[in-house]
Amino acid sequence: MGNVPARPATKVIDALADHVGVDPTALTPPLAAAVDPDALNALVERADTADAVAVSFDYEGHEVVVRGDGRAAVQ
């Protein structure tokens, strides 16, 4: 069985946790306080190309940008 790629919301959680220096399970508040994880997954996973969609939102003072290929960046 091959590796299953991480879903966009999971990539965001990992990127946020890495950015603030905590374990992903210790991230507070949960991602759902800023964005609906299911809606984020659906929007990004249905993008035709990497540049077809970019979703940005604020999480605890950090700007999060997720692209159509699932890349997540935190500033």
UniProtKB/TrEMBL annotation:
Residues covered by the Halobacterial output domain: 7-74
Entry protein name: Halobacterial output domain-containing protein
Organism name: Halolamina pelagica
